[in-house]
Amino acid sequence: MTAPLYRIPGATSAAQDAPVANEGAAADAAAPARTVAEVLASSQVESVLDELDRELVGLAPVKQRIRDIAALLVIDKLRLNLGLAAQSPSLHMSFTGNPGTGKTTVAMRMAQILHRLGYVRKGHLVAVTRDDLVGQYIGHTAPKTREVLKKAMGGVLFIDEAYYLYRPENERDYGQEAIEILLQVMENQRDDLVVILAGYADRMDTFFRSNPGMSSRIAHHLDFPDYTEDELLAIAERMLAQQNYRFGAGAREAFAQYLARRVTQPHFANARSVRNALDRARLRQASRLFTDRDRALDLDDLCTIAEADVRASRVFAAPAAPTHADAGSGDRSRPLAGRSR
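and the corresponding C-alpha cells:
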C-alpha cells in the first residue's frame, strides 16, 4: 500500500514557491523558510533540545539520536517548502532500557519537537500500559484500544512494557487484538500519531520477533543505558537543588557510598531509585528537626540534608557487595531493575 503524501502546515506547492519577477525588496514576509536557521527560529525546536540537555544527565547517544531525528524533520520541512512532495516519514520508535533512565521524559520532549515542526497537531503525550488497551472479555479490547488511540491522536502514544501486549502462552488473551488495531493505525494514520514502545531490551527483542508487523513499523530504536554512579550523584544534586535542598558536610560522600551499594542490589531503578532515596533522606531530616520543637530553625537547617540523614538508610546495614576489582573480570552488569515479577 502506498503511504499517503503529507504536507506540513505552512508548506506550499512548487508553483506557489516560484519566485515572482521583480519582487525585489518587497518579498512576502510570509514566504516559506529556506534555511535551517529560519526553521529553527520559527519552530523554537532548539529550546526543546536545550531543555532536554538540562533535564537529563548523561544519555549522550540518546540525545544525539533525538537531534538527528530533529535534523531530518527540519530538512524535510525545507524540502516540502520547495514543493518536493514526500511520503510521510515513519517516526514510530522503540525505547529500551531499565526503569528510571529517562524514557518518558525523552518521549515528552519528542512530542514537543514533532508538534513544533508541524508533524503532529497537538504534541501531547498519552502514556499507557497493557491494562489500558487490553480487555478482560470478548468485545472489550477493541473499544478500549480505540478510546486510547482517540485520546492520543495528534500526539504521541507511549506504551510502557509493550511486550505484555503479547502473551502467547494464554490462548484466551486478547492482547493480539489490540496489537492488530495498533498496527492498522500506525500505518494508516502515521501522519497524525507517533507510537513509542518501551521496555527492557531483551523482552522487546522477543516481542518484535513474535510480531514482525510491529517491528517493520518501528523506524527508530533508542537504547537508554544505565547511569554511572557519578551521573547518579549529579542527578541527586540536581533533584535536591530543584527542591531547595543541598547536601551538608559529609552527606554528599555518604550518598556516593549509598549509591555504590544500592546499584548492586535487586530492583535498582536508576534516577527513580535516587528520587526515592532522597525522599527518605528528607523524611529523616524532617523527623530529626521535628524532635527539637523549641529551637528556631533557620534557612540552613531547613535546606540541609545531613550526613546522618543519609547513613540512616538500611542499605548501610547490609554487607557491602564485592567491588568490580574483587569480582575479577566477571560480569559487570547490574541486577535486573524494575519491580519483582
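(Above: one complete record from the training split.) The longest helix spans residues 60-81.
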